[in-house]
Amino acid sequence: MTIQQSPSIQHIPEGLPEKIQHYVDGEFVDSIGGATFDVLDPVSNQTYVQAAAGQREDIDRAVAAARKAFDEGPWPRMLPRARSRVLNRIADIVESRDARLAELESFDSGLPITQALGQAQRAAENFRFFADLIVAQTDDTYKVPGRQVNYVNRKPKGVAGLITPWNTPFMLESWKLAPALASGCTVVLKPAEFTPLSASLWADIFREAGVPDGVFNLVNGFGEEAGDALVKHEDVQLISFTGESSTGQTIFANCAATLKGMSMELGGKSPAVVFADADIEAALDATVFGVFSLNGERCTAGSRILVERSIYDDFVARYAERAKNIVVGDPHDPKTEVGALVHPEHYDKVMSYIEIGKSEGRLVAGGGRPDGFDTGNYVAPTVFADVKPDARIFQEEIFGPVVAITPFDTDEEALALANGVKYGLAAYIWTNNLKRAHNFSQAVDAGMVWLNSNNVRDLRTPFGGVKASGLGHEGGYRSIDFYTDQQAVHITLNEAHSPRFGTQSK
Ligand code: NAD
């Protein structure tokens, strides 16, 4: 039986905007053609606001503003320390408004309020981190004694197009905005259409922090319209994209015509591998949290749990017990552990996988709507055991509170199962055997590995996936590398020894 709060008491934040607009060159504006779209909240699934639906001409206007700010404005030319001060002010403002940000984010996305609060604080930390990084930035210099000095002149790339998903909207936007702005780029952000509310808050935050007009521009709208126009715009130098692997493929192809720089953070189906010699209690805590936090709408979710056979039955029983005890409820209630999925379309997708799973595995927890929840996108934490590696619920990203558990007998089999999917974002390994831990970590197809840990990230480390989970790594200085060009400048210290063409007598 899934534990639940009363679903009937919905918290509606005070002071919701009357409409959500674009933000271009320091001003809130409607779409040029007046188009809008409905934004629903995931608890009532009622439209609570209309958002401006950006079209090609709206992207053109935003890119023109960003271009002008880049070519003529102070932002790319400021001393790193001066930009850093602005970024720190942004972090201060975000921190001071974390409760309000969390309230709005939770309302718009269905994320549990306590987890939305953590995401708001992480967004502030992203700005603080890149504020520090740019003042500490060093670049390469190479000396050829007596002949040459060669140095790297790092320059912001230009106008950055930032395209983000709906799962942790504000935090993921900060993950791109902070390094792009720190590097001196100007930006056009196209946030996800399911969750445009928190993105509109950046405008005032940046204005108050002293970001010049035109440096940050926001265009709301659908991926196929606003997103597509941004990707194809010839005055945009790079696209940083986070979203589904199939969308990434489309964007990859569409960037070709204008030869844009690209960074792609895509989908995942990450394994959590639990060996019999692990601290089972710690593994249980982490693997339950790893798939059910953020409503399971988490790219790095450990959504396939591989368990050594000698502890398998006990682990499955204890795991199912924990899943049944998870508190599903109103996203605004601080006791809620799993809230409402973002949108009815996504809810339908997750539910269809649960139905598929019923013929592919042994259902040991959840399996549908939790009792007592007649409306809203609520899904009971769902656990399938004995899932075969060719099952769709083993292979495909569900992006909801659904997990597949599979037994293994040997290290080799565990590795083959872990690597036997198209994705390669994260992996979580649970063992107290030092050699196994490192050998397994190094062999697993994953951009990021956590050993005896849930997903706790040091901001200096690379972030990204391999295989269908991504292309290029951001994180720490790699993000600065992505948003800047490194121009090589070569200086001759002595005579220029050029072969003398055109001096031979004929
Ligand atoms: P999505 O691909 O549907 O949409 C992401 C963004 O792309 C949205 O803003 C959307 O409007 C835009 N878009 C869609 N089609 C486009 C097009 N043709 N051209 C330009 N833009 C377009 O993804 P989603 O459903 O919003 O997010 C969930 C996905 O994101 C999951 O697959 C998840 O794993 C992934 N994700 C990955 C990471 C990571 O860091 N690897 C982090 C979070 C989410």
The CATH class assignment of the largest domain is: Alpha Beta
The CATH homologous superfamily of the largest domain is termed Aldehyde Dehydrogenase, Chain A, domain 1
CATH architecture of the largest domain: 3-Layer(aba) Sandwich
CATH topology of the largest domain: Aldehyde Dehydrogenase, Chain A, domain 1
Can you give keywords for this protein?
seven-stranded mixed beta sheet, 506 residues, 2 domains, 37% helix, Aldehyde Dehydrogenase, Chain A, domain 1, alpha/beta, six-stranded mixed beta sheet, binds nicotinamide-adenine-dinucleotide, 15 helices, Aldehyde Dehydrogenase, Chain A, domain 2, globular
Write up this protein.
- With 506 residues, the protein is of the alpha/beta class.
- The chain folds into two domains: 11-266 and 469-488, Aldehyde Dehydrogenase, Chain A, domain 1 (3-Layer(aba) Sandwich); 271-451, Aldehyde Dehydrogenase, Chain A, domain 2, CATH 3.40.309.
- The protein has 15 helices and 25 strands.
- It has helices at residues 56-72, 80-96, 98-109, 113-136, 169-182, 201-209, 223-232, 245-255, 280-292, 309-325, 344-358, 392-395, 411-419, 434-443, 477-483; strands spanning 3-4, 19-20, 22-24, 27-29, 36-40, 47-52, 141-144, 148-156, 159-163, 186-190, 216-218, 238-242, 261-265, 271-274, 304-308, 327-328, 362-365, 382-385, 402-408, 423-424, 426-430, 448-451, 466-467, 470-471, 484-492.
- A seven-stranded mixed β-sheet has the order 17-18-19-15-14-21-22, sandwiched between helices. The chain has a six-stranded mixed β-sheet with strand order 11-10-9-12-13-24, sandwiched between helices.
- Helix 8 (245-255) links the parallel strand 12 (238-242) and strand 13.
- Helix 2 packs across helix 6 and helix 3 crosses helix 4.
- The longest helix has 24 residues, at 113-136.
- The chain is globular.
- The N and C termini lie far apart (97 Å).
- The model has no long low-confidence stretch (mean pLDDT 97).
- The structure holds nicotinamide-adenine-dinucleotide.
- Nicotinamide-adenine-dinucleotide is lined by residues 163-167, 172, 190, 192-193, 222-224, 227-228, 231, 242-244, 247, 250-251, 265-268, 299, 397, 399, 425, 465, 470.
